[in-house]
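Quarterly update, task 2.4: S-adenosylmethionine-bound model.
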Amino acid sequence: MHIEEPLKALNAICPYYTMFPLDFPLRVLQGRARKGDWVVDPFCGRGTTNFAARLLGLSSFGVDSSPVAVALTQAKLADARVSDVVRTAKGILDSMPSRVAVPNGDFWERAYEPAVLRQICWLRKDLLRDCSSDSRLLLRAILLGALHGPRTKLAASHLSNQCPRTFAPKPDYAVRFWRKRRMKPPAVNVVEVVRTRARRYLSQRPAYTPAHVVLGDSRAAKVFESRQFRWAITSPPYYGMRTYIPDQWLRNWFLGGPAHVTYKPPARELDHASADAFADDLRKVWMGIAASAAIDARLVIRFGGIADRDVDPVTLLKSSLSDSGWRLTTAVSAGDANAGRRQATQFVHGGPAPKEEYDFYAVLA
Ligand SMILES: C[S@@+](CC[C@H](N)C(=O)[O-])C[C@H]1O[C@@H](n2cnc3c(N)ncnc32)[C@H](O)[C@@H]1O
């Protein structure tokens, strides 16, 4: 089945740290998945697996412990016209009062032009109150994608002063950077940014498929709701990779989180204290999926190591699969993690550098 490129556009609605390429789950499913199959990703991130399932007309289930990941995955499964999304944004902004509470401090003053910040805060408040419709889910993800990123000479695509787009800047560093270069935040037209992005991502819309996304901990078997999955395609956090929430603190703020970075480990974080503890946690996830899997189910995992943890990712992943209800059939290199458009290409900001990545294929034991 050939999928036209414009139908894939929605996948790029917002970058996500350590996302894997859409081609990976597509390649696994294409030609093998049958109509009516359910696909699960227990670490769904920006919903790449779920979106691949949708493109192929399959139902999907996603779990992630990060609110940013869940918001993006929900948007990948939503369906609304460009005009509906723009109308929703305008409607919310039309009801904006003259005074809107905004976060204080140097970072916020330099990150956003005052009128833009007021609009962002009002949109945030209204979307926190109600995000039940598909046009609101899509608007929220469009705003998450536009919240920070580089400034361009042409029409603005982001709402912020110069920033990286994949991860949120550290506030003190960003303030120093802007001050030194005398960079002022741009007075962008928020509705126009939404319109341009909505056209980019929603001009062609893939057909709707049944899907469900959960904000939760995939180590808890009950999170999978006893569905009969035929495919599980996923990429867990790599051992030692613990910065999903701090790296997304601005997008997390937009979803109701604090207006500052917190480095406290999130409650649902896998146990990174040792490779054995980490493998034990992953085993719980594989066991939970096995308990909800169809008899001929397949589990496909992309996993790698990071340079500051001297642990062999193949040994760790194999150990997590032992006594998990799954039998490993193949483990192959996914290629050099630093090459091409692999998920690890996102590790560009001096965080832990990735080592090689591997793809693991397993069947029910
Ligand atoms: C490597 S990323 C997945 C990226 C995804 N394949 C994509 O394309 O965007 C791993 C994800 O696992 C999530 N995660 C970490 N611990 C979790 C847990 N206990 N339960 C569910 N998700 C978790 C992180 O928030 C992160 O989004």
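Highlight for this quarter: The chain has twelve helices and seven strands.
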